[in-house]
Design goal:
single chain; alpha/beta; D-Maltodextrin-Binding Protein, domain 2; 5-stranded mixed β-sheet; 12 helices; globular; disordered N terminus
């Protein structure tokens, strides 16, 4: 990771925030070659695809497969879930960004890959402000922070002291992801030298934590639960405790400094810019309705997620408020991935 000079970070942040002011978060008049909304009345006219930026087995994939079944039941067309992990989600994002804006190809990824990648990478094969629009944001809930069994820390403050004195690796599920940002913030504030080790998704990350190949990792409750007993939870991210681990304090409760540890990531479902508004509304409504099904309730219970997707208008309002905050965190930390 190469820290950017302060002036360059300010310039980058100013440019990004200016771009966000006209970002394609809705039916913007500036979107070129927009198909008429009338055409969406016959949508979908062929099988749908959800391209997932991570391997099978994690939270992103689980949401995609659940939503695929819901879409098939609601609209009568088969939905194929296609996993295209790698390159910090660039492969999957690029495939969707370059797809026709007819509502038949969707992306499901983590928030960081479509919020922060625009400043983490100097050059991308697409424009995250212009080429994609969100339709649904699936909540991810508090993430679990856990350490390898041999690490003596029982809480985050003890781990920070351990990391100051010992070589320490943080497992992350993708370059530039939320765990890497937490590691970099702790290094910046505390003077530790935690090294981020990137994986293609959560599953191999948790396996390596359980075997002691890395000393700490951050991820979903369900993936953590697959190795529970071989690793030790020491905190959760966000503003509230995990429903599955109610006695485990948040990082903020433990006195870990910074706005970053209070933020809650999410899993956006995105489509090519220019997708008819009626399609975005239909997808949003399908997610809101689907959230009340037994399968959705079971998924949220499994992953310890207490919240549901919001209606399109509410999601867009949150998007406009949250994205600049997340981007500023990346700019302030000076993270670069190329």
């Amino acid at each position: 990771m190469i820290p950017t000079p302060m002036a360059a970070r300010r310039e980058a942040l100013s440019a990004v925030l200016a771009a966000l002011a006209v970002a394609a978060v809705g039916p913007a008049a500036a979107q070129p070659k927009r198909p008429s909304d009338k055409a969406a009345l016959n949508w979908p006219t062929k099988p749908l695809r959800i391209i997932v930026a991570f391997p099978a087995g994690g939270l992103t994939d689980s949401y995609a497969r659940m939503f695929a079944e819901q879409l098939t039941a609601k609209f009568g067309q088969p939905v194929v879930v296609e996993n295209r992990p790698g390159a910090g989600a660039i492969i999957a994002i690029d495939a969707v960004a370059k797809s026709p804006a007819d509502g038949h190809t969707m992306l499901l990824t983590t928030s960081g890959t479509v919020w922060q990648n625009r400043v983490l990478y100097s050059k991308l094969p697409y424009n995250l402000d212009k080429d994609l629009v969100p339709a649904v944001v699936f909540p991810s809930g508090p993430l679990v922070v856990a350490v390898a069994e041999k690490v003596p820390a029982k809480n985050m403050r003890e781990f920070i002291e351990f990391a100051k004195k010992n070589p320490t690796n943080m497992g992350t599920y993708a370059p530039g992801s939320y765990p890497q940002m937490i590691a970099d913030q702790i290094n910046k504030v505390e003077g530790s030298k935690i090294v981020s080790v990137h994986y293609r998704g959560e599953a191999p990350m948790w396996v390596d934590l359980a075997s002691g190949q890395v000393q700490i990792a951050v991820g979903s409750y369900q993936s953590f639960a697959s190795v529970q007993g071989r690793v030790r939870a020491i905190g959760v991210t966000g503003n509230y405790r995990s429903p599955k681990l109610p006695d485990l304090p948040t990082l903020a409760e433990q006195g870990v400094a910074g706005r970053l540890v209070t933020l809650e990531g999410a899993l956006p479902l995105m489509l090519p810019a220019g997708t008819p508004e009626a399609v975005l509304q239909a997808l949003s409504q399908a997610a809101v309705e689907g959230a009340n099904t037994e399968r959705a309730a079971k998924l949220r219970e499994t992953f310890a997620i207490p919240t549901k997707p919001k209606k399109l208008a509410d999601m867009r309002r949150d998007w406009e408020q949250d994205v600049p905050v997340w981007i500023k965190q990346a700019v302030d930390l000076g993270i670069k991935l190329d």
